[in-house]
Write a structure and sequence with these properties.
There is one protein chain. The mean pLDDT is about 85. This protein has helices spanning about 10-20, 35-40, 60-65, 80-90, 125-135, 170, 215-220; strands spanning about 1-5, 25-30, 50, 70-75, 95-100, 120, 140-145, 150-155, 180-185, 190, 205-210. The protein contains 7 helices and 11 strands. Helices cover about 30% and strands about 25% of the residues. Strand 9 and strand 10 (about 190) form a beta hairpin. A 6-stranded parallel sheet has the order 3-2-1-4-5-6, with helices on both faces. A 5-stranded antiparallel sheet has the order 7-8-11-9-10. The chain is elongated, with a radius of gyration of 20 Å. By secondary structure, it is an alpha/beta fold.
Length: about 220
Amino acid sequence: MRVIIAGGGSVGRFIAEQLHGQGHSVLIIDNDRDVVSRAAASGEPIGVDWREGDACEIEALTAAGLSEADVVAAVTGDDEDNLVISLLAKQEFGVPRVVARVNNPKNEWLFNEVWGVDVSVSTPHLLAALVEEAVAVGSFIRLLSFEGGRAKLAEVTLAEGSPLDGKTIEELRVPRDATVVAVLRNGRLIVPRGDTLLRAGDEVIVLVTTDSEDEVNSLLTSS
């Protein structure tokens, strides 16, 4: 997979290193000549290509080969830049998958398909959700949004005495446009099947749509 990352800061470098380590081809674009020069001199992240350029400009993206990218990640420290990069990647180059970093949580509502964003990641919101998930039992916790909020990844930790304790995934009868994607039990990941039994204390990870969210919420948090 060909991945192009706009933004050579600590976030961009970390993502690049992780993706390259999994066998993907990765290029980082950054408009700071010193950042690119230091990266070239140090050779880090190992195996990752660098290019100096302003990712908000079509010429720079063309030179970087964006038309051949499978994924573009706009992870600069500026939300306006990330939106412009996402829009250009999607509309001008037809990149199949565009991921954007949200720096200011107040701007998250802008990061949707109108701006070419397939997946947005708001670190403050994600951290808040993870903190809530760590202390809340029996609550429906939204972790990530996709497709402009039309799909969400959420988690519920089944409380003691939950009526779902001892039921199978099939018996849940989740709506057709929702699915249980994982169950975490005692630090172990269980890939769910229809006959997978749920237990109190399980962390149930679900993918829901806007239409199915309320029904799944009610289903998993019933007492």
